[in-house]
Amino acid sequence: MMVMHFDHAMSVGTTRRSSLLLLLVFVLGMGVGTGCTGAGSAPEEGGASGEPSSWPDDPEWVQVWGDEFEDEGLPDSSKWIYETGGHGWGNEELQYYTEARQKNARVEDGHLIIEAHEESYRGSQYTSTRLNSDTSWTYGRFEIRAQVPAGRGTWPALWLLASEDNYGDQYWPDNGEIDIMEHVGYDAGVVHSTVHTEAYNHTQGTQRGSSMEVPDATTAFHVYALEWTPNQIRAYVDGEQYFTFSRPSTPDYKKWPFNHDFHLIMNVAVGGTWGGVEGVAQDIWPERMMIDYVRVYKPKSQVE
Questions:
Q1: Could you read off the pLDDT of 136-155 as tens digits, one per residue?
Q2: For the chain, which residues make up each domain, given as ranges?
């Protein structure tokens, strides 16, 4: 998201953080460096290592992970982790993200529904859900077919955050963020894709991103996709490319931290430093983002 995410630095989710700590203890005990599961080697200070030497120029994509949301009820706990809390998330957001509460997150009629409600809950004015994928990847193609909520004050996002704190002095923005799609309710017919790094982020006015008009984003499903390779990040809507961010010719982590594992996040925020710029409507709740499927791909040559 085009804002700071101190929240993730404080809490990646109990399951993910515990796993990383156990992995770190094991690795240090073995006397070797931590590995990046998607890239096959550990990132270095230069931000250019861990690149597949055989990455194809025009890959044939093969699906390696996904969720079609076929089983009704709560989201699949083998694929999704709840990230909870109501502390503003570094962005002055108004919602409390709940856990395993069907009012806020459920599979219904073949869709995942993430629904924000206006209600008093643990000191917050609204509730919603934020889901993190249980799996992380380095490079790939990510596709989410979704319909975003409508109304002033809604702020849905489909995005990627680093699963490891490898670079710099602080988790964000040093380790990177990739926004596949963001939408703010007061600008209903536009979606955005952005990357954030230590050198390029909104706090300095240097973020890299682009926007695309999608007039029916709140009333129809669209495929929001991202292709992330060792040298480039590209965003698409329904197959139309509208954003490209290329690795600098002399990269370091400050400009290109995108060579280690990231996980997928899906959420609907309320208000905040961007979503709430024009206030929050009082007569629209509840509002939902509906997701038809999530699919992750790797090049066929990397899978076989």
A1: 999 999 999 999 999 999 99
A2: 6-52+59-303
User: Residue 271 corresponds to which tokens in the numbers above?
Assistant: 């208000």
- Tokens read off for 163: 């699963």
What gap in Å lies between CA 195 and CA 209, rounded to an integer?
6
Coil, strand or helix at 154:
strand
Instruction: Give domain 6-52+59-303's CATH number out of 2.60.120.200, 3.40.50.2000, 3.40.190.10, 3.40.190.290.
Output: 2.60.120.200
- Cα distances from 169 to residues 172, 175, 176, in angstroms, run 9, 10, 13
Q: Is the dihedral of CA 161, 104, 285, 188 positive or negative?
A: positive
Does the active-site annotation cover 182? yes
- Torsional sign, CA 72, 77, 81, 87: positive
Q: Which of 115, 118, 143, 177 is catalytic?
A: 177
Q: Using CA atoms, how far apart are residues 118 and 283, in angstroms rounded to an integer?
A: 10
pLDDT tens digit string along 30-71? Answer: 333 323 333 333 454 444 444 556 799 899 999 999 999 999
Q: What is the largest CA-CA distance in the chain?
A: 58
Judge whether 240 counts as a catalytic residue.
Answer: no
Q: Which tokens sit at 1?
A: 């998201």
Catalytic residue among 118, 143, 182, 198: 182
Q: What is the DSSP string of 35-72?
A: P-TTTSS---TTS--S--TT--SS--EEEEEEE---S-
